[in-house]
Amino acid sequence: MTYEGALIMLAVSMVVVLAVLIAAAAAYLARRAAASYPVALTRAAAAFAATLTVASAITTALATLGN
Question: Does pTM top 0.85 for this prediction?
Answer without folding.
Answer: yes
